[in-house]
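Typical record was shown:
=====
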Amino acid sequence: MGIAPFRHFIESQQLDREFLFSLFRDADDMRSNPKKYSGSLERKILATIFYEPSTRTRFSFEIAMLRLGGQVVSTENAREFSSAVKGESIEDTARIVGAYADGIVIRHHEEGAVRRASEVSPAPVINGGDGKGQHPSQALLDVYTIYRERDWLDSFKIAMVGDLASGRTVRSLAYLLGKFNDVSITFVSPPHLRMGDDIKGYLKKHGVEFSESESLAETLPEMDIIYMTRIQKERMNAAEYALAKGKFVINEKTLQLIRKDARLLHPLPHGEEIDLPLEVERKDPRIAYFRQAENGLYIRMALLRSLLGGNS
């Protein structure tokens, strides 16, 4: 079993290659031998506290915990159905819930809030997404997906497309790709939604080649991985959204520009940026985003077991 080299999981930069591949091995084994792990977290309790909506992240963490034999307590709208309504701080919530549960997954609308919670929580805290900050377990399942689809994590070209200014998934993934060799990133976005300078500075420091483009059509034929994201309407004003709406779309026409051995990823949910018939999504091997979502269950099982001290 891979033992986490950290107590709380707050950002992608915490992951190193050795630990990553140990999680991959554990996740693969959990997929193949589920009964072997069914009692790994027996008598452990996971609390999931979500101040923003979630389907895949919340359900996959909760089902992962249940499959490992643990239990779950949850609030899916903590902004309305928790003491946050009364003005309780995230720090006080973490102090209390961390004394009740063996681990906590938090999604919060404020960047940095999950880190503040981790600084006072008696139990391990996992960042389930914090505002425009990071979503490190998404980046973990993203690289796990690339690994499963391509059998390696070095020497590939990836395009990150869409709302790169607000997208915490692309930020987290960009940080994590700094751990690998000969990776080339092309950021494809409208000018007002470009990747932040903090990420670019990190990539430069770690020798990761990157470029920027406003042309999806010119970029697609060169890529091994295309990572689409939605335009996050809820994180911008109406004028900003109007400038980006419908600008980058994968449909049957643009799909023809993608190489047969390339893979199309998306953290989901997708909107108009993916406009493909159901039959294409089901049959075209390049469409990997539903496999990507499924991978999230197994890699989060491995992560929970490593953090919460599952039995070997």
In short: The domain at 136-293 is CATH 3.40.50.1370 (Rossmann fold). Residues 289-308 form the longest helix (20 residues). The chain has a mean pLDDT of 91.
